[in-house]
Amino acid sequence: MTAMKGRGHSLLAASVIMLWVFYCNSVAAAAPARLAISCGALGVQLRLCQEGVEAWSRQTGTPVKVVATPNSSTERFALYQQILASHSPDIDVFQIDVVWPGTFAPHLVDLSSYIDGRFTQQFFQTMITNNTIDGALVAMPWYTDAGVLFYRKDLLQKYGRSPPQTWQQLTESARIIQNAERAAGNTRMQGFVFQAKGYEGLTCDALEWIDSFNGGTLVNSAGKVTLDNARAAAALDLAASWIGDIAPKGVLNYDEEASRGVFQSGNAVFMRNWPYAWALGNAEGSPIRGRIGVMALPRGGDQGHPSATLGGWQLAVSRYSRHPALAADLVRYLTSYAEQKRRAIAASYNPTIKALYQDQEVLAAVPFFGTLYDSFEHAVARPSRVTGSKYARVSAEFYYTVHDVLSGKSAAAPALAALQKKLIRLSRGEQW
Ligand code: GLC
Question: Residue 177 and residue 180: Cα distance in Å, rounded?
Answer without folding.
Answer: 5
